[in-house]
Design brief:
The chain is mainly alpha-helical. Helices cover 46% and strands 6% of the residues. The two termini are 32 Å apart.
Length: 201
């Protein structure tokens, strides 16, 4: 969840901050909900926020196991009306596809050869597992230590520093303009958000 939230800030700007799109706006601290299920449960309060004058709500989630983006959105909508200032965007299929989409940066950071990184990460059935697999085979030892689960821990699928390590990568290496070239879903979200101009009361 923290990884998704960090990418939310990065991808909505084209560089490093939301101020690029909305320079006169102020932003609440990003909310960590404790998982996609918890986020979905809180959709009504976010809709209410978006219905408030001068406020907007932006939710970013993984497609995960949903059959399509539209099916997921319809499920989350539940027959409710989404106001103009409520934005629900979906990463296809997992947020890790956006991480992998900047091939050069991910290779430099992780040590994985560029030709071992998928060129169309949105098409990966399980982008997170793909990321873990290539790091396990080709990654630097310190990156493996951060991202991969401890061999003695049979319950966790990722390392204890998985989120913090990838957030560090995003802050210091990842470039949205490069990632958009390999991820249509990221490009689409960025284009959607760039179309909105802020309304100053």
């Amino acid at each position: 969840v923290s990884l998704i939230n960090k990418l939310l800030v990065v991808q909505t700007c084209g560089t490093t901050s939301m101020e690029t799109y909305f320079p006169s706006s102020t932003f609440n601290q990003i909310i960590v909900t404790g998982g996609v299920g918890e986020l979905k449960k809180k959709i009504t309060p976010f809709i209410q926020i978006a219905n408030t004058s001068g406020k907007a709500a932006l939710i970013l989630t993984d497609l995960d196991q949903s059959a399509s983006v539209q099916i997921l959105i319809d499920d989350w909508r539940g027959g409710r009306f989404f106001p103009d200032n409520f934005f629900l965007h979906v990463a296809v299929k997992e947020i890790e596809s956006w991480v992998l989409a900047d091939v050069n940066a991910f290779s430099q950071w992780s040590g994985v050869p560029k030709n071992k990184i998928p060129q169309n990460p949105d098409n990966e059935y399980d982008a997170k597992q793909t990321l873990l697999n290539i790091v396990s085979k080709y990654g630097k030892s310190d990156i493996k230590k951060d991202l991969l689960p401890n061999k003695d821990n049979r319950t966790s699928k990722v390392g204890i520093s998985y989120n913090s390590s990838l957030v560090s990568f995003i802050n210091n290496f990842w470039r949205i303009d490069e990632a958009k070239l390999n991820s249509p879903s990221l490009k689409y979200v960025d284009q959607c958000l760039s179309q909105y101009t802020e309304i100053i009361p």
